[in-house]
Amino acid sequence: MDSDLKCLVIIRACGIYLIRRILIAFEAAINDRVDVLSLSLGGSPVEYYENSMSIGSFHAVANNIIVVSSASNDRPYTCSVGNVEPWMINVAASTIDGDLTSFVSLGDNKTIKGDSLSGMELLPRKLYPLISGDHAKYDNVSSNDALNCIGGTLDPQKSKGEILVCLQVQDDCHFLCRTHKVVEAARVDGSYIFNYINHTKSPVAYIYKVTPDIMTPGVNIIAAYSEARSPSK
């Protein structure tokens, strides 16, 4: 195939409702008629009929799609490969000792280290109002859904020009997002930040931009994405 005719499609399948999102991602790839699926997913092996990776990859292969994935072993233990489906191609993908570091500075002079995949232009160097998702929700949605920044729960007019803190309990971490595009700007330990928001009259913060290198390992690596849609969607 001519290289000019090739297309790279990036599908995000993490976050809450992980099993459902993985199957939806497989379905989207099949509908897009991709030739190769490269998966950065894995976990402990379970029965095929209970494994979203097994089910999704089987349907993909049945539609003549080559499925490639990391072996997903549980180091340092032997015989711990997670992706054992015979219809998939397993490859090695390592972790790295470097972080995609970002820092969040709060109005109380506390600086918190986090991770970031933001490639956006740096905002003007000043402190911005800091709010949690339940303070930017539409009137007809629950505070819990808004705290998790679930799609369709946040009113852009209520968060415009502010830094929005999103809670994701399932992954035991918290996100801070720049709200004019709602792209993940820094992944941090949010306990201190939520306490700061709840006990400060006018909480403010600033997020330092980072420019990470792209490497060959397969964990916490930035994927390419189109500017037509943010990488958090």
Automatic annotation (TrEMBL):
In the record, biological process GO terms are: proteolysis
**Transmembrane region(s):** none
Q: Does the keyword Signal apply?
A: yes
Domain (Peptidase S8/S53) spans 25-109
Query: What molecular function terms (GO) are annotated for this protein?
Result: serine-type endopeptidase activity
Main subcellular location of this protein, as a coarse class: secreted
A Pfam family this chain is assigned to:
Peptidase_S8
* UniProt KW keywords: Signal
Q: Which domain of life is it from?
A: Eukaryota
SUPFAM superfamilies reported for this sequence: Subtilisin-like (SSF52743)
UniProt KW Amino-acid biosynthesis keyword: no
User: What would be one Gene Ontology cellular-component term for the protein?
Assistant: extracellular region
- Known InterPro entries for this protein? Peptidase_S8/S53_dom, Peptidase_S8/S53_dom_sf, SBT
Q: What PANTHER family does the database record attribute to this sequence? A: PROPROTEIN CONVERTASE SUBTILISIN/KEXIN
Q: Which family does it belong to?
A: Belongs to the peptidase S8 family.
User: What is the official name of this protein in its record?
Assistant: Peptidase S8/S53 domain-containing protein
Phylogenetic classification of the source organism: Eukaryota, Viridiplantae, Streptophyta, Embryophyta, Tracheophyta
